[in-house]
Amino acid sequence: MTGPAPTLTPVIAASVVLDAATGRIATFTPLTALTTGVTYTATILGGTAGVKDLALPANAMLNNFTWNFTVGPAAGICLLPVPLLSVSTYGTFGGSAGMTNTGIISVINGDIGTIATGTSAVTGFHDTAGDIYTETPANIGAVNGTIYTCTNSTTGPTSTGVNATYCGLAGQARLDAQTAYLALVNEPAGADPGGNLAGITLAPGVWTSSSGSILIQGGDLTLDAGGNANAVWVFQMASTLTVGGPGAAAPQSIILAGGAQAKNVFWQVGTAATINAGGGGTMVGTIISQDGVTFSTVGNVALTTVNGRAISLGASVTMVDTVINVPAP
Known about the structure:
Blueprint: E1 14-18, E2 26-30, E3 39-44, E4 65-70, E5 90-94, E6 99-109, E7 111-113, E8 122-123, E9 125-127, E10 132-133, E11 139-143, E12 147-148, H1 164-185, E13 201-202, E14 205-208, E15 214-216, E16 221-224, E17 233-237, E18 241-243, E19 254-257, E20 265-269, E21 273-275, E22 282-289, E23 293-295, E24 304-312, E25 317-320, E26 322-325
């Protein structure tokens, strides 16, 4: 008689490292990611081929020690930051549309870029390479890095023609931004943090809006790492992100606590993000949106601060008197 072939459980390739301090704690690191929802069996071998102590002669553990565990969704304590690759140096990236600055105190501590080709795609900025893009006495934005574009500057080295190298780098940044956006979308959905996150504290992890939009109005949002400087937050929303208001009033801020770092906060926005339409406040983290990011509105004078990045895949990034500090790696 013959029957079905037995199901063979594959062995998971991994590294095992003992801690240097005691030599008693072994860290098992799979070489490929384990699958969420799958139950795995772990075995520490005993007998002559298994674990032994350091005595001479060595004493072996008599029997195998076996247990099972089921892989759950990654939480903030084990989430890894989404790789941004070449777009990581950009304070703003205007996708295929461009970037606009209004006001005279805007500063981007990093690069900016776009793959837009229109002559007015970038307005109100100058960079350290000497390129000026349609600045006026009322619209001056300092880029303490490089403006990577596929269009000409008004004045400077790129005014005589498109810099092919810069355009190529902008194109790669757009590809890397798209890859990062999809990676955020594909993170397993987490708990719904609620419609309005004002006045609450959130632990690390993936937070997914069931309504499609996230609002922070009427109070600040606190992100508490609980002492883990590597803690990661991913906010997923199919539609809009709105910080501040209602309307043009009441700026709100994101507060980092317990060792949380701006470089480990990510906002995946399905449509557009509007940050403190009335000016002021501090936004934290990397925003990657499909349809644009807006900071403040024309006529406001309160400085808006961003410790992170504003990356749009399609529509433009617009700002009024905004300072963006790109987080260190």
